[in-house]
Amino acid sequence: MKKLLVIIFAIALAASCLIGATAINPFAASPVERDILLGLRLPRVLFSAVIGAMLGLSGSVYQLTLKNPLADSFTTGAASSSALGAVLAIAFGLPLPLVPVAALATGLIGLLTVYRLSKTGGIINPVTMILAGVVMNIVASSVISFAKYFFEDSLSSIVFWLMGGFFVVDWGKLLLCAVVLLIAYLLFAGKALQLNLLALDEHSAQTLGVNVDKLRRVAFVVATALVAVAVSHTGIIGFVGLIVPHVARSLFGSDMQQNLFFSTLLGALLLTLADAAARSIIPGGAELPVGIITALLGGVFFLYLLQTRREKFWHG
Amino acid sequence: MAELRVEKLNFQRGDFHLQLDELRIAQGEKVAILGENGSGKSTLLQLLCGVLHGSGTIYYRERLLQKIPVAERAQLFSLLPQFSEVIFPFSVAEVVLFGRFPHAQGNSFSDEDKYLSELQLEKLDLLQLRDRQFNQLSGGEKRRVMLARVLNQQAPIIYLDEPNASLDIRHTLEIFELLSQRAETVISPVHDINLAERFFNRFLLLKQGKLLADVSRDQLTPELLTETYDVLVTRGAAAFTFCHQ
Fold first, then answer.
1. Whether the Cβ atoms of residue B33 and residue B187 lie closer than 8 Å to each other
2. Count of CB pairs separated by less than 8 Å, A with B
3. What is the interface pTM, i.e. ipTM, of the complex?
4. Nearest-CB residue to B70 (from A68, A209, A255)
5. CATH of the domain at B204
6. B90 and A197 in contact by Cβ < 8 A?
7. End-to-end CA distance of chain A
8. Which residues constitute the domain of residue B120?
9. What is the pLDDT of residues A11-51, one digit of tens each?
């Protein structure tokens, strides 16, 4: 199954490189088509895969560490508060490499505020967490709107950035994201057993030898770094981090040793396909924002799973 | 050398105040903690496990608890909390295997870990449930799975917060018999006084956060129980007597 999925993913990557505004036949490509393939398509396809992997991986870790099947970068407020930092960085004209750093700072502030608010007496209340996350989204969005209104000079770059998607891709950005993804993945994979124990109540996990607070802190920082770097480059792309871990869990079990891998791979697959669709649906070269496709693809699949395999998702 | 030594333990939460001036528990003792609801039984257990923090000192084999890293504590004691949960669908076998975490080398469980988990499943009459999802089990079955996880940890001190809660009488007897025969120290709040009296040999009686008495089985008198629970206790033949077949 693991091999099959990797093969499907490789085929999806290759196919995504060939479709778009101009379909390219790899065996009879003109020099222009070759330039499109290597200079535009390939980095873009790889970039969508890496961003999808980052969102899938962060969702898998958020859901476990926050003990909430509805947790992801969006519902925890991490994505929108990261976006806020990125917008402010753009508005104040900070150099581009500092945008993800600002996004990480505000993303962590947002997430930790939500976490603090939802934790009472050492126990995270799942409903409070979602409520606090939703409110955090609204607050961050309104400050973003204010920034758009106030910093008129940077308006066009903010709006362009907020539209999200993979319009401007270069190898440098791709490399940065790939390195962040790789480090985060290796770090989480090395702690997969400990992460599993976070599925237990706090006292059981603690007396089994897991330093729950410390592990959670590390997981928050690293998962939010994934979100902040992804958001700073592509804007907010919802739904991937929420549904992908559930799909992975229902197909391959809850064990994090499996779930981390499959959430990453399925996230990459989902966003690669979604971006390929976004580039090809409207004839004549126009593009749909990729978020529309992820929400549609992901949402329908999610509803299907909810109907057929609800008991595999979470108890209750 | 006392395996567990406690001095001047104090804990305050709102109006509730728990105070324990001195306690020593030796290896292999089977200690039941008795007392009415809210008398501080679970709080005491949590303090001893270091998941709740009060003032005073707790030593395990003469080592100060605060100085023992969390990972090492799991080699010294295990805890069955009163309420335990598993979010997301893990199987019974997976949950029991979690108990081997303190012994796992690197980032995976060894064949020995898996073998010992199977033994634990067998001991607690759980083999037929091994592939079921934990969250689909009944309350009593969940309790037994969690108990198997705790025993699988193979720690020399086992804290069990009301281990027989929601268990039927057969499994209660089986588990208490199993525990009483083991070499480990068992420290456990128990609500069923008759069962406690039968399977434990030392009794800590708590009332409103204070240690009323620390007695052996022959000192556990109706008068003492009357004082602990504020009900009139007399000794007599029970209506039913349960023994394992």
1. yes
2. 105
3. 0.93
4. A209
5. 3.40.50.300
6. no
7. 29
8. 4-229
9. 999 998 888 777 788 788 788 888 888 888 899 999 999 99
